[in-house]
Amino acid sequence: MNQKFIYASILALAANASLCAQEKDSLQINQLKEVVVSDTKFEQKRENSGKIIEVITAEDLQKKQGQSLANVLSQVAGVEVNGSQSFSGKNQGVYVRGGRNRQVAIYIDGVPVSDASMINLEYDLRLIPVEQIEKIEVLKGSSSTLYGTGAATAVINITLKKASQDKVSGNAYWNVGTLNNQEKSAIDANDFEQGLAFNGTLKKFNYVTMINSKENKNFSEARGENYEGDSFSRINVIQKFGYKFNDKFALTLFGNYDKFKNTYDNPYGGASSSSDDLNNRSASEQFRAGLNASYKYNKGELLVNTSAATIDRNSAISNTWAGTVDSYNYSSRNANVDIINKYNVLSSLYILTGVQAQYFDMEQKDAYTDVTNNFAHFNIVDPYVTAVYNSKFGLNVNAGARLNIHSEYGNQVVYNFNPSYKFSNLPVRILSSYSTAYITPSLYQVYGPYGNLDLKPEENATAEAGFETILLDNKFVLNAVAFYREEKNKVDFFTDINWNSFYINYDNKINAKGAEVNVTYKPVDLFNIKANYTFTQVEDVVGLLIPKHKVNAEINSQITSRFNSVIGFQYFSNRKDAYYDNDTYATTRINLDAYSLINATLNYNLIKDRLNIFGSVTNIFNEDYVESIGYNTRGRNFKLGLNFKF
To answer: Which pLDDT does position 27 carry in this prediction?
Structure first.
C-alpha cells in the first residue's frame, strides 16, 4: 500500500475538519469533564492531575466493538501490545516507554492482578474480555509510590461495569467474524464471541452478573504454508454484590472465574523458520474474590481493597530432542490488602496515607522440576504517604514516598515529585515529574529451574516534562510529554560457556527516552478526530519489538443520530526481534519492516436505546507484515455483531 497516499488522506480529512470548526456550538470535549483516580487512588478532576492520564471511556469502547483488550490498549500513546495482531492464543506482551511486560502494573477495580507462576509475575491479558469493562485509565511513568513493585513504566487501571439504577437491566451480545491471514480470503466464520449481563439496584442493594465466552479456530499461530489451524476458547464469569448502608458507607463483594485453553505451534526453529506442531496445548484457570469498602467522614474518606486469587496453568510441549511430549504444571496464589485514607487538611490540601500487604507463592511440577509453595513464596508490606496540593492560582503538586518491606529483599524506598501549573491568562497547563520505582525478582526467577537466590531488585527512575493546551472554545486539545527513563540491575536470562543457564542482574544501566503527543479535535458535534504519535528510543539490549515511531489516528463521524462510523489508522516503524536458531545454537537478531493498518467500524442503533448492530473490517488493504518473528498475523477480516439491551 502507498503510505504517502494514506498520510495525504488523513491530512485532507483533518483540513476538512478545520473548515467545519468555523461553526460555533456549545459542545465541550468530554476529556475536560473527566474524573480520574490513577494518580491519587481517589477521584479528582483530570485538570487537577499533574499527569497526562489516557482515559478510554465506555463511549470509546462502544465504538470499538469487536476489538480485544490488547487491540484497544495498543492504540494508546506510548503503549505497544505485541500479539494484538496475531492469533488470540498467542502470549501478549505489554511494552510501555521502552520497558518490558513486568514493568507494567495492572489493577482491576482497585486491586492488583498478576500470576505469580509466570516468569515475570505479569498478568495474562487473554483472561479478561473487553466487553466487561466500563473504563480504562493508563498512567505512564514510575508509579511505585502508590502502586508498589512492578509499576515502573505504567499502571493500567481497569474499572469493570457497575450496576444500573434500575431494578433489573442488562444486555446480551453476540458477534461473529472471519479469521484470515494475508494468504487467505475465506468468509468462513471462525471467530465467535457472545455474552450476557444482568445488573440492577434494589433500594440499598445492587448486583452485577456478567458471562462471556469466546472461541477462535482454524488459524495457525505459526507463520507457514499449509499449517493446521490452532484453536482458542475462553469463558469468564463475574459476580458483584454491593450494599450502600448510607451516604457514608458502602461495601462491594466480588467473585471472578476465568478459563481459557488453546493449541499453539513452535514459532521458530532452524534458520528462523516456524514449525507446525499438533501436540502443543495449554490451559489456564483463575479464581478471584475480594471486597471493596469505602467510608466517608467529615474531612476525608477511607478505602479498603482486598483480593485473593488462585491460578492453575498446564501445558503440553513437544520435546524435539527426546521425541516426547512433556507436561508442565504451574499454580500460584496471591492475596492483597490495601488500606488508603484521604484526609483534607485544607480545602486545597489533602494527605493520602496507606499500607498495602501482598502475598505470593507458586508451584511448578514437570519431569525436570518440582518447586513447591513451601519454598517459593514471599510477602511484601508497604506503608506509603502522598500529599496533594491544588491551589486556587494554578499550582498543583503531588508528592509522596513509599517504604517497601520485602520478606526476601529487605527495605526499598521510592518517591515521586509531580508539580504542574495552569496559567490563568493562557490556555496552557505545564507538567513535570520525577519518580522512582523498583521491581523485585519474580518467584520463578528466584526459585524456578533457572532460579538465582542472589538476584537484586531492579530499579527505575523516570523524569518527564510536558504541556497541555485547550483552544477553539474547548474543541481542540493538544498535549505532549517528553520522558527519560533510567533502569539498572535488569534481571534477564543468561547462558554461560558451559551451557549453564540461570537468571542474573546485568550491571550496565539502560536508558530510554522519547515523547508522546495526543491531539483531539471536535469541530462540530457530529465529527471528531483523535490522533497520537509516540517516539521511543531505547538501548538495543531491551529494544526488541518496540517501534521507534508509532502513529494512531481515529476519525469518528456521527452520520445520523443512530448511525456512527469509526475509521482507524496505525503505523509501526521498523522493530528489532530475536530468535534462538536451533541450527546454529545461537540467538539471532533480525530487523522487522515497518507496516501500517487501516480498520473501520460501523455502528447502527436499529431499535433506539435497545438494539445496536455493528460491522467491522480490519486490515482493509490486507497488508502483509510481521508482528514478531515466526508468528502469523491477521489479514483482512470481517466481523458482524449485535447488542440487545433490556
So the answer is: 37
